[in-house]
Write a structure and sequence with these properties.
33% of the residues lie in helices and 22% in strands. The protein has 236 residues and is of the alpha+beta class. Bound molecules: S-adenosylmethionine (SAM).
Amino acid sequence: MDGGATSVEEARARHADLVAQGKSAVHAVFHTADVTLSALPADSGTFDIVSSMFFVQFCFSTSVAAAHVLDEVTRVLKDKGVFCCILPDGDRVASLLRDRRTQVAFGHFKLHKCPLQKTQEAPYGVAYNFSLTDSACTEFVVSPKLLRTMLESRGFVGGWPGGEFFMGAQHLLSQGAESETVSTILRGQKCSQIDWMSLGFFSVVLAKKKIPLVETKDPSPVKRRRKCDSTPGASA
Ligand SMILES: C[S@@+](CC[C@H](N)C(=O)[O-])C[C@H]1O[C@@H](n2cnc3c(N)ncnc32)[C@H](O)[C@@H]1O
């Protein structure tokens, strides 16, 4: 699902390519809609995984928009389902934007601070333009602490080792198993290794939806065992 018809067409074409090459047997359905305003087109408890790539930072224009998107992710996931997303590291973005300069460049990435508009609310609405080349699109700072709190309040636990919610993309990409993927992307995007490694700017969020606890009125098992043990004829 994506709000831009062009992006949806690109995704459809990529999927058709993968199917034609025998690299995917996934049945994919594509929708064009504004995710901050619409319900996800699925029943509650449908999916094992919900993933969102380079997108969540567009949903934090307001608290209402951010809450709506996370409520919908929670609703369509099964219990124990996983939410996985890649987004800019909000703490790093915020520290770059705190700088007196209005534009920050690293590799072929550029960040440009936007004047805060009246409709935006902190801490959600801190806007910046992010661009790879000359064209820029407006994104919003997503504080890792805030996102974690919002996910925890919806019953998620961190999915990374140690129960962490965030892992730097740079750490993942430096692992041997990912090196082939990295070279493929580098060939496709014609950017330098230094630029690619500056993707350490991004975080990968992994969050698991907990099973709701079922309350039981039973007495504790220890008490019951003792009662049985005292019954004549009971065996250990
Ligand atoms: C950086 S692109 C990432 C596209 C794709 N997920 C990928 O990884 O290649 C960000 C996408 O977010 C979409 N987008 C931004 N705001 C949106 C909204 N409110 N609802 C739906 N899509 C939105 C844009 O149309 C754009 O395609």
